Amino acid sequence: MSNYSPLHALLDSERAGAAPKSAPVAGDAEEEVVLAAPAHTHAHGHGHGHGGDAWNGEEYLARPGLKETAKISAEAVAHALAESGLDDEATKKLSLLEIGAGVGSVTAHFAKAFEHVHAIDTSANMLLTFSTQPVSVRKNVTHTLHALGSDSPAAFARGLPQPSPTEEEPRRWVLPHRERFDVAAANLVVHHVDDLDAFFAGAVGILRDGGRLVVTEFGTTEDGRDPAKEARDEKAQAEGKAPAGTVNGPGLFHHAFSPEQLTALFEKYGLVDVKAGRRGVLPSIVTGREDIPLVWAVGTRKL
Question: Which residues cross the membrane (predicted)?
Fold first, then answer.
């Protein structure tokens, strides 16, 4: 899931003269939850994408364990929502904002579970790859290049046009599909976030009253260990790099979370009826290493 720092440089030079376009209406493709290898995207390598975009959608799509991780993450979101009183039948009538959608690996599951999914990411390269996936042509899925922050609720409420790059139309703009959402979900995103205050202000503010926020994250073990960090450190050492002490900038690194830590975060930002727990494990980024616990939390915006 993509790094949450503003990456709108892709279209900065076009903003002054660009006319917003409406998203094309596509057929509601019936597909298995598969991830298709794109013929080509505009990402040409780590650190060499549009506007200094450090993410490469093609490389991300080829990561081992991606499909398994997406399935486990989607199941954790469904479990969290059920714990908050929303079962599978209820979610079929709800709108979802997917924060940090990346190449759409989890979106493919969400599209079958919600009435509408709007996917956002800060990486144009990831969204260009997203646009090559079967899920992108479903009638109930839209996507935009957007860095969630404290100004996001106002931007959506005002209906301001947003970039929505595709392989065929990399400079496309669209209008937001709606002002507020029933559910917002961030899968393996919070550990990338520089400014938690701005992020949670956006995530909570863009919900309707009574809406749910769900977060899944790398978790600690029951005895407090951080297998994700241990795997990153081992990988860095094997590659002859400095130990992986940061995720998205020097001096910044969010360690794995415990359910108690996620609960405290949710309550800090005004969510109520907060529940959290551990559910399943994710494949490690290092072959042969132990799997990584997945933690989840769900909270409700006050009525």
Answer: none
